[in-house]
């Protein structure tokens, strides 16, 4: 059995707050977990006697302009310099591409040495199939386990074994371009109805209101489920469905469908939204072509490294029909780095991943991308030159009062795919909310016999 998830406890006990202060912590730089460079360098003398080793590292950081890609290459490069007998071969893909490729690889039991899995329900089939190696032993080395925020590893734990190490621990927010808001004469919306209204006003000024990368179907679902979090009056709608306390024909679900369609009909999203993948969709906002962007707080560093930096603010997703608490968020435990149980170089792969994760928070901090990491970070964000946007995001974390996981991290893969397809279709054509609800319920019953 998977360890019980601690969704609300994670938020209420402050694990979404990074074990640091946004300012006034007395440090001028990132202390972070100690770098292993020196020890790896000493070990490399012995390893040079071994034959060359290639470790395949599948990841979801394909865009070379983003901080995440630069962090990846920095740590990998440092490791290969210290360990010349080891070659780290990167396979960098967009999220949906990586999911599809891993599914194919898993079917033939050819999982890369290191791959990416998503928490909870999404990774469970890979664990059940025996494709992933437990990482408990590696976590005990160099104090790595203690660098993670309390409770975050539970999302990647089955039968007391940890099978993946997360890159982040985030919440979903709405980023907005202050300059474009001013041009349209609109203000930050406090209600969903105001969000629809300002979308119409932005559209009337020739400004695309919201960027969404809906070719990657999880993005539309992420937005939609934030609406469900509001219309349901709080968290646990999907849990109640799983426990047979509610069905998808519940009024809260149907209302959320109707509200999403209100946004689509208001012209809130870019033309051809379902043809934009994550990189292309996000770049619309980062290049100043759209006024808003609903996404996890992991996007903060990339926005701060773009042409719209210093123009961007952030706000909580508003109430819907007067329902919901804006301090409850879509919670996003990050993508996890997992090791293949069938790796030909299991020992060396674990050694590298230990080095990677030990250095990840330190390098992330140095590259101004430590907002939303899953590990504790030592350092003064303000003194280190982080933007006002980053400081504002950190402030939001301090008041998180729980929330929900994404749909595909909660339901089994068959049900998740039916949902993702159904929601994506709403960006193309309008449909009766009752019919959408019935589709979901039918898919749930088919996939939960």
Characterize the structure shown.
The longest helix has 21 residues, at 346-366. It is globular and about 65 Å long. The protein has 17 helices and 13 strands. Strands 7, 8, 9, 10, 11 and 13 form a 6-stranded mixed β-sheet that branches. Helix 9 packs across helix 11, helix 11 (251-265) crosses helix 17 (433-446) and helix 16 (413-426) runs antiparallel to helix 17 (433-446). Helices cover 41% and strands 13% of the residues. It has helices spanning 7-12, 37-47, 67-82, 95-107, 124-128, 136-139, 178-184, 192-204, 218-231, 237-242, 251-265, 278-286, 300-304, 346-366, 388-397, 413-426, 433-446, and strands at 53-59, 86-92, 114-117, 157-158, 161-162, 165-166, 169-177, 208-211, 290-296, 312-315, 329-333, 336-339, 403-404. Strand 4 (157-158) and strand 5 form a beta hairpin. It starts with 6 loop residues before the first helix and ends with a helix. It is α/β, with parallel strands linked by helices and 449 residues long.
